[in-house]
Amino acid sequence: MTRTPTNRPGALIALIAIQALSAGFFLWDVLGDAMPEGMRALANLHIAIEALAAFGLILAVIFETRYLMRLLRRKAHLERQVSIAAGAFHDIMQDHFSAWGLTPAEEDVAMFTIKGFSIAEIADMRGSAQGTVKSQLNAIYRKAGVNGRGGLLGLLIDGLLEAPLVFPQDKTTQQPA
Hints:
It is built from six helices and two strands; from the N terminus they run ααααααββ. The protein has helices at residues 10-34, 45-100, 104-114, 119-126, 130-144, 149-162; strands spanning 165-166, 173-174. It has a two-stranded antiparallel sheet. Strand 1 and strand 2 form a beta hairpin. The radius of gyration is 29 Å and the shape is rod-shaped. Residues 170-177 have low confidence and may be disordered.
């Protein structure tokens, strides 16, 4: 089993915080070195390079923070869209299951099949024999008018692609552009 990365930006936030502290230190050091001489201190190559590094680090922290916020907003938007699509897909499946007249057991088997489980896995999860699951799958395919798992999934995805997007917060229909 592979591990998936976490969805939390904590490590990136920590790195940005370290950069911000470093920028603050460099800025404090530059100001401390330049105070006695004022603007003439920038003629000293060492102080000028430190000042440029501090300025560059500050700009990087600002850029990274803004970019991280943009990525987090985009992620939230995509998660909302996936949630809407998942809800619409579930509704389409239920509508098809009702139209086909599937029994509750056939609905369960159809759901597991759509999720990609094998006949043996479905039988194990449902506590039934593999022959029973095969029989139920054949009934599902016959009622749906398809030849197999791919046809069943294709039929349901076609229904999803034809459905308008409905946003749960205001129930308005989004027309394609």
